[in-house]
Amino acid sequence: MNNSPIITANNLSFSYNGETVLENVNLTINENDFVWIVGPNGGGKTTLLKLMLGLLKSKTGSIKILGDSPQKARRYIGYMSQHILLDSQFPVSVLDVVLMGRLGNGRSVGPFRSADKEIANEVLQQVGLLEYRQKQFSQLSGGQQRRLLIARALVSRPKILLLDEPTANLDADSEKDLFELLKILNKELTIILVSHDPAFVSDFVKRAVCVNRKVHEHPTTEISGSYASEFYGDQRRIVQHDKHIKED
Fold first, then answer.
1. Least confident residue range of 44-58, 118-132, 155-169, 208-222
2. Fewer CB near the terminus (10 Å): N or C of the chain?
3. Are residues 101 and 153 in contact, defined by beta-carbon separation less than 8 angstroms?
4. What is the pTM assigned to this prediction?
5. CA 184 → CA 108, 140, 180, 225, distances in Å?
6. Is the Cβ–Cβ distance between 16 and 40 less than 8 Å?
7. pLDDT-derived band at 64, boundaries 50, 70, 90
8. Domains of the chain as residue ranges with CATH
9. Smallest Cα–Cα separation from 124: which of 157, 85, 152?
10. Which strand (E) or helix (H) includes residue 11?
11. Cβ-contact 92, 136 below 8 angstroms
């Protein structure tokens, strides 16, 4: 496993309409890291993801992805949004959803190539959905839909996978299955996820990046009530019990 830096932010700051959202961020994420981004709503988590994706550009400091600008490195990043931007009743097959991830991947105008479909089938096999490839998106369970959207992110052959609240509204079994999949994917990919569910996340991730305008890094084993108070600004406590981190 290579531990070389894959994402570096140096003295990075960002403001919306003069209001500082991120301030003096210094962050290094290495190849094959599994990083949990945590913090309160409005603390800057999504802004940090957008800066990594090159959707926003900072005026102060810098961020590099694979040694290049986020805009140039975007093709190496797979992204799964917090919100499913598909009409659940739209008549689109599982295979078609995955193939959407090949759009703009060096393709010319026209039908999908056999190579595109071959890669799509490979990632469907990888996430355990190959047998569902001809089913409609609306026929999948919530957990299967999340796996499908991960497959769509993987089909472009990224080196980094960004996930924004991938387990939102899933039941405990689906949530566990999803993290088991991410654990396997982490052998080949750097994974960065935003999640508010420490009970599951702490068993899988290697580091926690706490974001509330400023950024601090911690091993997940170090997250305690003092960090919850500092970053969430309320009375909730995150308590560690035999490698599990739970909220009181």
1. 208-222
2. N
3. yes
4. 0.83
5. 32, 22, 7, 30
6. no
7. very high
8. 5-89+161-247 (3.40.50.300)
9. 152
10. strand 5-16
11. yes
